[in-house]
Amino acid sequence: MKEILIAGGRLRLRRANLDDLNYIMTLQYAPENLKFIVPFDEDYHREIFTCADKTDIIVEEIDTGQAVGYFMLRELDSPCAEFTHVIIDKKGVGYGREALKLLMKWTFEVKKFHRIWIDCKDYNYVALRLYESLGFVREGVLREIIFTDGVWENLIVLGILDREYYLHRWTTANGIQWSVGSDEWSV
Ligand SMILES: CC(C)(COP(=O)(O)OP(=O)(O)OC[C@H]1O[C@@H](n2cnc3c(N)ncnc32)[C@H](O)[C@@H]1OP(=O)(O)O)[C@@H](O)C(=O)NCCC(=O)NCCS
Questions:
Q1: Which tens digit of pLDDT belongs to each residue from 35-50?
Q2: What are the residue ranges spanned by the domains of the chain?
Q3: Residue 116, C-beta contacts closer than 8 angstroms, at least 6 positions apart
Q4: Residue of the nearest CA to atom 44 in ligand 1?
Q5: Rg over CA atoms, the chain
Q6: Which pLDDT belongs to residue 1?
Q7: What is the pLDDT of residues 86-119, one digit of tens each?
Q8: What is the DSSP letter of 76?
Q9: How far is the centre of ligand 1, averaged over its atoms, from the C-alpha of 130 (Å)?
Q10: 4-178 architecture in CATH?
Q11: Is there a contact between 37 and 87 (Cβ–Cβ < 8 Å)?
Q12: Which phi and psi (to 5°) does residue 103 adopt?
């Protein structure tokens, strides 16, 4: 039986199970995703299905039941969870934004986490812009932390606190725009 975590307009999030393993591995190793993530092997994902501190989550279309992406979350046994993998298979139709909003709603409003953080390659402009537009703040740079195909790469660490999430949700619901990358509020 499917464990639905949260549902929105077009999408729902459900906890992944062993039947989703091939889908998760395929998404990780698809070239358009692999260049932006660090993949985990099958054994690691199998272990996730038995752990309380990590979870894989499938993003599904409500109308079709089709999987359109997946998230991996870690550090769920602490007040500060990590969004370790964010991958949307059906790109460019707004699913990334919608699914992340659902995931943030679930983590902050249902599970009551204090803080969510994420790291992102410094040239992944689409993801960085998306995270910042959802209220994540750049907290620092891990310089030359991963070695990919002979190149040392930097990771940007982004985080959002529970009170920032609620403030961001309230301001966007009330038509107040947050200027990304500055401390200015504009209406
Ligand atoms: C990053 C990712 C999750 C975004 O999901 P998505 O469903 O494609 O994104 P959306 O359709 O919701 O679009 C989100 C925003 O990015 C913009 N965008 C999406 N694709 C874009 C592209 N190729 N070029 C420029 N902007 C783009 C959209 O216009 C939208 O901006 P807006 O809401 O201000 O109009 C997805 O592209 C992905 O899985 N990428 C590969 C893996 C990855 O990079 N994961 C993140 C690792 S930290």
A1: 999 999 999 999 999 9
A2: 4-178
A3: 80, 81, 82, 83, 104, 107, 108, 136, 159, 160, 165
A4: 36
A5: 16
A6: 79
A7: 999 999 999 999 999 999 999 999 999 999 999 9
A8: T
A9: 7
A10: 3-Layer(aba) Sandwich (3.40)
A11: yes
A12: -65, -40
